[in-house]
């Protein structure tokens, strides 16, 4: 809802600027809208539009990269969970308790990630969750292998658990959201200037107002998508947890 509110504010600012431009057209003296004046205004607005397009493209690219990184992290985590569980299964019945802890950790993580609650999502990065992951590592290190095969499986399980915990924390930190608000505010300001200038150039009519409305809707949707993709674990647009749920069904078998 927070991102939707920002998108609505952006729409109001951009569309309001366009309407303000239409009103100013009728108030300005005629010589302010001469061909020479309009030519200078168009050159200036062209420069601002180019900068706005570059910033908008940069934000979209950054947001898409964050979303793809989080999506890849979910798939990788699911794979490592399965590999860890199978290594423990091959080790022997001594690992049943560790496998149960692993399954509980996965269930808890899926429940929090799919809740959509910001507090629940924040708790995934809490020290308590990190300590739970470290508990599994300590249990793995405390195993007493009785054969070379078990020693190899123990070493492999410790390696998988360590890499999985490190990558999980990295993915959670990347999924916090990284849209620079000053850059976003600057972009909205530029869009308002651009749409306001459009209103200055055009006599008011229904078709023009409808075009401005659609343009403002499009820009606000773009801002909404940027904000949503920069927080891929919560919101309307979120990464799929299907790989983790599929991995959960395979644990303990």
UniProtKB/TrEMBL annotation:
Keywords carried by this UniProt record: Membrane, Transmembrane, Transmembrane helix
User: Which residue windows are transmembrane per the record?
Assistant: 7-28, 40-60, 183-201, 207-227
Domain of life, per UniProt, equals Bacteria
Q: What is this protein called?
A: DUF4239 domain-containing protein
Q: Which organism is it from?
A: Trinickia violacea
